[in-house]
Amino acid sequence: xxxxxPKNAPSRRQFLTGAAAAxxxxxxxxxxxxxxxxPLITEVQDWARATGDGVDATPYGLPIQYESDVVxxxxxxxxxxxxxxxxxxxxxxxxxxxxxxGCAFERHHSGAIELRKxxxxxxxxxxxxQPLIFTYEDLERFPRENRIYFCECAANTGMEWAxxxxxxxxFTHGMIHNMEYSGVxxxxxxxxxxxxxxxxxxxxxxxxxxxxxxxxxxxxAMDDVLVAFKANGEALRKEHGYPVRLVVPGWEGNMWVKWLxxxxxxxxxxxxxxxxxxxxxxxxxxxxxKWTWVMDAKSVVTSPSPQAPITHGPGPLVITGLAxxxxxxxxxxxxxxxxxxxxxxxxxAAPGTDKALTRFYLDYDWDGSEMLLQSRxxxxxxxxxxxxxQLREVRGENSIYHNNCIQTWWVKANGEAENVEVS
Length: 423
What we know:
By secondary structure, the chain is mainly beta.
């Protein structure tokens, strides 16, 4: 494959000059093609004729009504009941990297529960010198940290293994969010209890009916795992585990146990349902890989995409998307408009950070022709996001989890986009 620079990279000066040339009060380039005075500029509008809402109109701020389409969505046929199901982050409609809590995807195994701070208890037991029970207020008294991490469901993009299925970045890649968590390192609490020499694993479970128990190697538990009680500066939402959840950076979201109630230090893993019959990778010969916790480097173009078509016609176009890696920081993203034949380096909005989402942009001059739009990410370990064919050579088509292949959008001449497979 060859590398190239953005074809006919748009000149912003030329674009702005063209807009100014339309004349004072006229519509800028690409806006409906009008040439006469624009009443939205030349006439006083209703919103400027009277005063607006006061500061107490919405004590907790909500999105304006014109953004009512930016919501989480589920796929009705995906599960038998929404109590044990998932919805998807509207990544096609967001920018930057921080996911608002109200848009961040949910995954429940027995529904989101209501648990008061006053009723919250966290037990540390097992192979420890002193079993301990913490209240919410106890946790607040420990030294805390603030860290930004992505949380991705292991099943994200899982329905795409056998071929293109769902038509939208939200539905193919939306089982992910990226938030700033505030909490206490799990290491601090384990040290408070005193881990005994034979302890090599921890088993964590939640307070909900499913408990969603998972085994985590002690090495990871003592590294960067957080016991979090805030996200994006405010209390966790109910659906995200209020009042306390586990944050396991870079590892599959199923291990980020919500409504965390117990951490037991053990000699070995429990081999629970969630780490045997589920969240393992079935290969072509029918055997399954387990302990595949880390989410490998991945990316997706969020716009243009099926839910975010091009509406302005040919000319300057901002191609944008997200990239992430559970093995560290994203170091680069390439974009292709011809199905991977040629690649152009995208611009990272900011240097990649450890186990967090990175936003990328490619400023491109679109001539109105069809595109097979792709992105591929690289991380600090040197890993390069694979094509689906490369992934299938190793994994076959029987897997559900950990699909990090390159995604293709077929962008048509009319600006609409469709999910297709170019592997």
